[in-house]
Amino acid sequence: MTGTPAPSPLEAEERWARAAISELVEPANGTIRQLLADQGGVATLQAIRHRAAGSDRDLYVRVPELDVDRIAGDVQKARARVVLPGDAEWPLGLDALEHPPYCLYVRGDRRLDDLAERSVAVVGARACSAYGQRVAAELGEGLASRGWVVISGAAFGVDAAAHRGALAAGGDTVAVLACGVDRSYPQAHERLLGQVLEQGLVVSEVPPRAVPFPGRFLARNRIIAALARATVVVEASLRSGSLSTAGEARRVHRPVGAVPGPVTSATSAGTHQLVREDGAVLVTDVADVLDLAAPIGEATAPRRTGRTRATDSLTEAERRVWAAAPLRRWADLDRLAVGAGVDQAAVTRAVVVLEMLGLLEGDGHRWRKARGSVQGSAPGGL
Prior knowledge:
Blueprint (H helix, E strand, L loop, with lengths): L13 H11 L5 H10 L1 H9 L18 H10 L2 E4 L20 E4 L4 H6 L1 E5 L6 H16 L3 E4 L5 H11 L4 E4 L13 H10 E5 L9 H14 L2 E4 L8 H10 L4 E3 L10 H9 L3 E2 L3 H8 L22 H9 L8 H8 L3 H13 L3 E4 L2 E4 L13
Parallel strand pairs: 3-4, 3-7, 4-5, 5-6, 7-8, 8-9
Antiparallel strand pairs: 1-2, 2-6, 10-11
Helix pairs in contact: 1-3, 2-3, 6-7, 7-8, 9-10, 13-14, 13-15
């Protein structure tokens, strides 16, 4: 066809045909999704080359610039690989997406399916507060120290803090980019992405050299959500892109957690909305997150409990006698019965128990609260 370069022999291979499609067509195109499902990558690429893939002219704009040999060379230069649906490394969770990636570019020595199997996405605001940054780092470190993989988008703010927390714990982490895996975006995170490569993977659905167009960030978010067993939003404004990650997680039936923040903070308004309107689970620490993500029956971190008090095990009558006992003066059984509103026989039994527990001290036939026993309890008394 006039103006169209000659096909490369690589285009006869499913892997490189899909790589070519990832350069020709932006992610999440419904027409291409259906053609790939029906015909596979080789036939779909030929349909695009011959302008037979549909009436959408956008599908054909980049055909004159297509150079599959150059794409293959860029992949090799980046020391990356192209992973396809059906490959052993392809995470099956991606197949739940309405628009699965045409392929993935993966950079790093670990297997993506292995890391995704036990992973949590931690996402949130770029312009996060110090509180959000601290929580994200603590979640990243806590998850990694328990053998879980942290997935995020390597952006400023919450994403970077979560990656760094996982790295600090010596754990694995996966950065999903909206640009080619040979680029550092943002540029300031070149060192961070280098560290991620040492302990995990860098992943993208667009080929090397691809730049981070705005629409590619939203497309990237669906991959983050589908890779992970659960998604946690640490901080998000009402227009935060991380809310789209939460939405994608819900669409593929993954649990969503949201970290609460100050009600006066605009960067927590989105997380509060997730809990209030969208069914997200309020989470405050790693134990809460693991309750969302861990397989049923797997033991997670112990639940938080308040400090145990000697009064916790008291019966109603014993509690009322304890409350009625004075702190400094002494009271006999009659006074205790009147103050507690409890029959004197029950007061007698209660006094015995309370003395055994060290909650009351006696002086003959009179009692009062034992010194040091009222810390953390309402003193009550006559």
